[in-house]
Amino acid sequence: MRTRQTERYQQIVDRFEEVVRADIKKSARIADLPREAGVTARTLSRAFRTARGTTPYRYLQKFRLNEVRERF
């Protein structure tokens, strides 16, 4: 059963992922990412732990590594 909080967190994570995918070079500064996603760092972290079971920073690290692997 999904609660409103869980749905909201999923929306936050989806928005973050859109921002990251839109321009990987633009999102070079991790500290800027919560602002770009429209939330505080704490909210973004809570949302990621709830929706993905990881932190936004680990997600971003894995995403970037996968992007590099795909290019080479």
What does this protein look like?
Helix content is 71%, strand content 0%. The protein has one domain. It has helices at residues 4-22, 33-37, 41-51, 56-71. By secondary structure, it is mainly alpha-helical. Helix 1 crosses helix 3 (41-51).
The string of secondary-structure elements, in order, is HHHH
Q: Give the overall shape, derived from the CA principal axes.
A: globular
- Round the mean pLDDT to the nearest integer and report it: 86
Rg calc: 12 Å
The portion of residues forming beta strands comes to: under 5%
Q: What structural class do helix, strand and pairing data support?
A: mainly alpha
The low-confidence runs, each spanning 5 or more residues with pLDDT under 50, are none
Secondary structure tally, helices = 4
Counted up, domains total: 1
Query: Helical proportion?
Result: over 70%
Report how far the terminal alpha carbons are from each other: 41 Å
Q: Characterize the biggest β-sheet.
A: none
Total strand segments: 0
